[in-house]
Design goal:
Number of strands: 6
Shape: globular
Strand content: 15-25%
Distance between the termini: 23 Å
Structural class: alpha+beta
Radius of gyration: 14 Å
CATH architecture of one domain: 3-Layer(aba) Sandwich
Number of helices: 5
Order of helices and strands: EHEHHEEEHEH
Strand order of the largest sheet: 1-6-5-4-3-2
Length: 151
């Protein structure tokens, strides 16, 4: 999917909604890398943890986490596999439908816009309707080259 970053909705209302629920969305600290990796591997695919770990080599770290108290409940990364690519991302299944995914998504996309991108790519987008609604993502035509895993 392709996201027009110049037409992004504001992230502030989403962050305010998170604050009202006691959830903080922020970049992880360098020393929190193993903790984030553990969260990802315990809830999602181990290859996502590998991919998201690359975010810690970027400056600033190209990832955001959502914390409910001292517990990670979600993460979103960008600029990990390819430049201009959003993902991977995920929210603890027990914490879904609270707006966490949208807050993380928009925080990353706004960061990409601040880097100078005018479009972002979402590879292997999960529920397309979520991305269409949250950030105005547009499905890439089927005849475009696809993001493919080998191996």
């Amino acid at each position: 999917m392709l996201v027009p970053l110049l037409a992004l909705p504001p992230v502030e209302p989403h962050l305010e909604r998170m604050k009202e629920q006691g959830i903080v969305v922020r970049r992880p600290k360098v020393w929190e890398g193993p903790w984030v990796r553990e969260f990802i591997t315990s809830h999602f695919l181990s290859i996502w943890a590998e991919e998201a770990s690359v975010a810690f080599a970027n400056k600033p770290i190209s990832q955001f986490i959502a914390l409910d108290g001292a517990k990670i409940v979600g993460f979103a990364a960008y600029e990990c596999t390819y430049r201009g690519l959003f993902g991977p991302t995920g929210v603890d299944p027990a914490c879904r439908n609270r707006g966490i995914a949208a807050a993380l998504l928009l925080k990353c996309l706004w960061s990409m816009r601040e880097m100078g991108y005018i479009y972002a790519i979402i590879g292997l987008a999960g529920p397309r309707e979520f991305f269409e609604k949250s950030c105005g993502a547009i499905a890439v035509p089927d005849d475009w080259p696809q993001y493919i895993f080998e191996g």
